[in-house]
Design brief:
Keywords: Repeat. The protein has 444 residues and is α+β, with helices and mostly antiparallel strands. The chain contains 14 helices and 16 strands.
Length: 444
């Protein structure tokens, strides 16, 4: 009608859209005796599953089971989580933070910048490489505030956050940045990596561990010959097409560990696959992940070459974070050249760093290193003792994390017995989709 007004209609419409897009989050401690249930129900968009899993893993929560289901434009995910000690979540501040974080994943916000200069490095791994990198940074007056280093199939990827030693500010001078990048590229090239060594300054705020996956994927580490023969702990990955339903079914079976689901979902997402349904189950120290996927355009995997590529990439995503070697934790007062000195000591004693996590907080350095011998085998205990004496016995300690199976108590069997009750609590949409896929026998 002419002249009819709709006061506030646009505001009400925006509110409605916001309510539709904002995930509904329920955290339930009553259904399962051994784990906290985290339920996320929202409009579906590409990458939202990864963001939900990322929130959980960034809080160091262990995902024991998960049910993933989508119906048209909607999805529902249910996660069974515990803390690192295998206990349910009871801290109200943690629960509140978890609820708030999951309720904002629809915004698609990038990782908040830490105000540092981010250096990305990829190249051929070798004994002493990290020592040379940190030595160059120390010489160029760069203070390493945070860093993560992964190695896989003879390749290395590292994301290093630095600031200027003198000013304490991010490094913005283009000439100095060019000098840093050039020097580090020469170190990475060595004598035999002229074509593939890469060094750059990151201009984005991508989640650090997701970015490491992307860097190694771009480096095609999944195609390279493994340095060591795969063990029985190597992930078993199968990919088959479910023709009648138009899905490709991905199954991953491997040793359970922290952040396993994040690594798998991160890889599938960055390869432009959408997980429509999934079941994740862990028992003792083993994990089984099953995903029903399609391309973002709605089509399943269409060729044998593509199928093999998915298998290789998922195997690589699981193996990149696999801990090889002795775990050494360094906790000491931060000082200039600390990392250069520590890693030089490793190099001089024939130890190779296979993984590293570096952080500083209130002038205290909290660093984690996994080290092997020069050939990738177990490091000699006497050499480890010698290195600890040189660096400081009270500062550098050997730490062995308990296995996932040790973290799970006998209550695990009780959790299995209430599985039927858990499924009944998931909601009609999820139960119907699991039934249609043949994953449960009845949804009535």
């Amino acid at each position: 009608m002419v002249g009819m007004e709709w006061p506030g209609s646009l505001d009400e419409y925006e509110k409605l859209i916001n309510r539709i897009n904002t995930p509904r989050v329920v955290i339930d401690n009553a259904v399962c005796k051994t784990a906290t249930l985290v339920k996320v129900d929202s409009a579906r968009r590409h990458g939202i599953l990864l963001e939900a899993v990322q929130v959980l893993t960034d809080l160091n929560l262990s995902i024991q089971k998960a049910y993933i289901s989508s119906d048209g434009r909607w999805f529902m995910d249910v996660f069974h989580v515990t803390d690192l000690d295998g206990n349910k979540l009871i801290d109200e501040s943690v629960i509140s933070y978890l609820e708030q974080s999951l309720a904002t994943i629809h915004c698609g916000k990038p990782t908040v910048s830490n105000g540092l200069t981010a250096l990305e490095l990829t190249g051929t791994d070798r004994v002493g490489l990290l020592s040379e990198v940190f030595a160059v940074l120390a010489e160029l007056q760069c203070d390493v505030v945070e860093a993560k280093v992964w190695t896989h199939n003879g390749r290395i990827a590292s994301l290093i956050y630095v600031k200027d030693c003198n000013s304490g500010s991010p490094i913005k001078d283009s000439q100095k940045i060019d000098t840093i990048v050039g020097r580090l590229r020469n170190v990475l090239k060595g004598d035999d990596d002229i074509l593939y060594a890469k060094t750059s300054v990151s201009m984005t705020d991508t989640h650090t561990e997701r970015r490491l996956h992307q860097m190694m994927f771009a480096d095609r580490d999944y195609e390279r010959k493994p340095v060591l023969q795969h063990s029985d702990d190597s992930p078993a990955v199968t990919v088959e097409n479910c023709v009648e339903r138009g899905y490709s079914v991905v199954n991953v079976q491997c040793k359970d560990r922290m952040k396993l689901l994040f690594d798998a979902v991160c890889t599938l997402t960055d390869m432009d696959y959408v997980v429509f349904h999934g079941l994740i189950n862990t028992e003792r120290d083993r994990a089984c992940l099953e995903f029903y996927i399609r391309h973002t355009d709605g089509t399943p995997i269409s060729s044998e070459a593509e199928r093999q590529r998915v298998i290789q990439c998922l195997q690589a995503s699981v193996e990149r974070r696999t801990s090889q070697g002795v775990r050494l934790e360094l906790c000491t007062t931060d000082r200039p050249c600390l990392l250069a000195d520590v890693t030089r000591t490793f190099r001089e004693n024939g130890l190779n760093v296979t993984r590293a996590e570096v952080s500083t907080s209130a002038d205290v350095a909290l660093n984690l290193f996994y080290v092997t011998d020069a050939l990738g085998g177990a490091a000699d205990a006497k050499i480890i003792d010698s290195v600890r004496e040189k660096i400081g016995l009270s500062s550098l300690k050997v730490k062995e994390l308990p296995s996932i199976s040790q973290q799970k108590t006998e209550g695990g069997e009780q959790a299995a017995s209430v599985g039927g009750a858990v499924l009944l609590s998931l909601g009609s949409m999820l139960r119907r989709n699991l039934y249609n896929l043949g994953l449960i026998r009845s949804y009535s």
